[in-house]
Structure prediction request, 654 residues.
Amino acid sequence: MIHVSGLYHSYSQDDRYAVKDVSFDVPKGEVFGFLGPSGAGKSTTQGILTGLLKLQQGDVTVAGYPVKSMKNEMFNRIGVSFEQSNVYSKLTARENLAFYRQLFDVPTRDPLELIRQVGLGGKENLKVGTFSKGMKHRLTFARSMINNPELWFLDEPTTGLDPAIAANIKDIIKAQNEKGTTVFLTTHNMFIADELCHRVAFIVDGEIKLIDSPKNLKLQYGEKVVTVEYLADGRPQTETLSTVQAEDKARLQAILGTYEIMTMHTKEATLEEIFITVTGRGLT
Amino acid sequence: MKLFSSFVKELTLATRSFYFYIEIFFAVVLLAVVLFAIPEQIRAVQTQLLHLDLPQPAADRLTADLLEEDLDGQWQTVVLESGGQAFDTKLIETETARVYIVDSADAVRALADTQRNIGMVLSLDDAGQLHYTYYLQGYESQRLQNLLSVIPGASLDGVAEKIADLPVEQLAPDQVLLNDRENVIPTLIAFNSSFMGMFIMAAYVFLDKKEGVINAYAVTASSVARYLLSKILVVLLTATVSGLIVTVPVFGFQINYGLVLLLLLVSGFFASVLGLLIASFYADITKAFGTVFVVLILLMLPVIAYFLPGWNPWWIRIIPSDLVIWSFREILIEDGKTGFVLMVSAGLLVAGCGLFALADHRYRKTLSVS
Prediction:
């Protein structure tokens, strides 16, 4: 669905690249996470893929269309949700979506249904200028679904949303993906990426450091240990043991056979910890 | 269909914003000024103070001569005050002057000082010749001062007859002039309706930039050109309405409204595209203000030339607003030059299309993901 090869971009038109030799492919039906801290080159890459930034160097194909000679009709198959909400504040929520649906040549979704789906039911006739930041963000998200996109670009879709609403947005993304929509998710939120993405790319300083599935990354970089809490002589004790080394495995079996176990957890590395391990950088 | 829905959306946004009503409001205000404040013929009436320090028969004779030109043939008694002192005067009003005849030279001097009007004392010198004493205000031109100094010694006998005998050849005998009220209309329409579009268009674009909706439009299956055109159509609609608000009540149905509409549309198109182009270089209206201001001043220079026929350098004549003002004038006068209006309209349309292509390129190039 997306093919990127040898992508470079410089805002200053010199060798100070915001994006440097970026290459990846996203097959149809995948949720691909593009992860990195602010200024890493995530939005620049998404900007080029969606035609908002001119392609300077590299080979990029989106939904079968070469970005170099992008045509408006390509956007019939694409949806874009921006990090900064960008809806008309002087129009109502319904008017905003009703206007945008007219700009596509494919069957579109009912604005009211979308408004309800993102939890804005009952607010459809209010001017967007009266909305909170989170409500505007949800409307921007809803708008990106208006044309039933086959390829969906999502830039920080849950930023600024409370946990319940963020969970709803995640469910919508999952549901769309199950229907076959390919998702290109740009975020610095590793929990969202972990939950939604089939594969993730770590990008730092304009370069991709790694691409793999969250599961493989955890297997590769996780600490394969178990923490066990038990009662010994009436007093609580805690030990952390390797699940790989023979000596620790024997000790774990001994504890299990001898003492009353209170809690026991395998420790799994988070994506954020792996990101720091791989890139040497934090996400903020 | 996409253009139409974009236009409807832009019109909805415009009617919910402040800028849409500025042009219409000012059109109504300007119409009121034109109808109720500007007379059909502006008369330059000068106020003068006069004391006749002459023997009574001579003073009576001069007063009687002045009364012959009085609008109703009778003087009025008017009391003027200066420095807490009241002076009885005789007021004689003619087509071109209001002359207060006062009783003393001191009164002329005092009133000239406080009323800021020219004063004159007419007396006889030792040789029995007329002697003129003027009290000027300091703002009179050197030409006027020179004229006043030669009048006493000049023989004016027969001047009127000589002027009447001068051969005068009228180069444009059929030229129809507008009255003073009608004469201001071309400049008012050109600026309030046509060129105001530049400022309003820039304001609309900056509102969209502030909300980031241009990026949202750019990722739809509609073109940026449609987005720009829909805004232009809204500006043209307001230009047409505001133009007609001023012209219809003043001229009725005596003029060619086909040409009025044509010129309003092409000049509004040119101006709004200019506004689009300027707005493409700046992030917000504050940063663009300097450029918008300079361009507006440049466009306003032809107004000076319009009201000062003696000053019309070549570079003024190539400023688009000059062509628009004179084209509107040609439409408003009887038997105006239709060919000139059509030529200017075609030129503005071609120039506007060129600028539109440039603006379209700029907007596609400068969309950002910030």
Summary: The first strand of chain A starts at residue 2 and ends at 9. The CA atoms of residues 48 and 55 of chain A lie 6 Å apart. The mean pLDDT of chain A is 90. The longest helix of chain A spans residues 163-178.
